[in-house]
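Question: does this match?
>
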Amino acid sequence: MTVSEKFDGSAQMQSCIRIRFCEETDLARIFNFYSEYQHEHVDLRAEDLLRSSVTTRRVFLAEQPDDVIAMASSSYDYNDPRAETENKSWVEIGSTRAPVPGLGLYPFTIAAQVVHEFFTRPPEEFFFASIYNNNEAVAAMLSGKVGWEFFEPEETLIDVSGERENMSKLIWLRANTTTLPHQARLVLETIERFELAGITSKKTGDNFAVDLSDFPLANDLRPMLQELAHGGFGRLAENNAPTNMRVLREMLDKAMVSGLPAPQHKI
């Protein structure tokens, strides 16, 4: 049975999609998911790397109540060995796999991961993805709807990400601080649409309610998401040159605590 067959919107028990970040107890399910639903454009990661992402609750999941995973995506840290601090320098968004077609979750998933990482454990530099160059649809989606930019990675990033042997097959995209407000708006608007109308499959026409009760961007982090999407702080980030992610994150904390509009000066 395929995951699409398991994920049957006509059945009553299958009428809700739950969106959340993983728990450590999801480890075996996530390993099984990636093993069972392999794809030419999604590399299997080293067990210790994926385990680290699971245990730190950094795997995005869209699932059914009976444990059928419809989509998963993860975040991975890479440190610059030249850096003077122990803070991670880059975060990769990867292992994005959606074996259930038609749900349209891909842009939301990527943007939600970026915004959540920025709020909870920002890198120093930027978020990135390395895409196989025959995967034009995903590259176009990232550079279009999600608002990322193409770039040429520096030698250190190529080495620490382990992609040197694959460089001829890859294109690279990144999300810096100027892209964060756009992604926050995408996430917020999608959450609001989920709350109002759920998700309708473009393939089958089935409609699913969406359970966001354990999704922090729809709950505890929502005021911060709204500020980044539409507030003065978001306008500041969007209209200035890219800067250090961690510095910008500290500035957001100050703006939220003060309850005042973010200062209108250059970073």
The chain has ten helices and nine strands. Confidence is low (pLDDT under 50) at residues 9-13, 260-267.
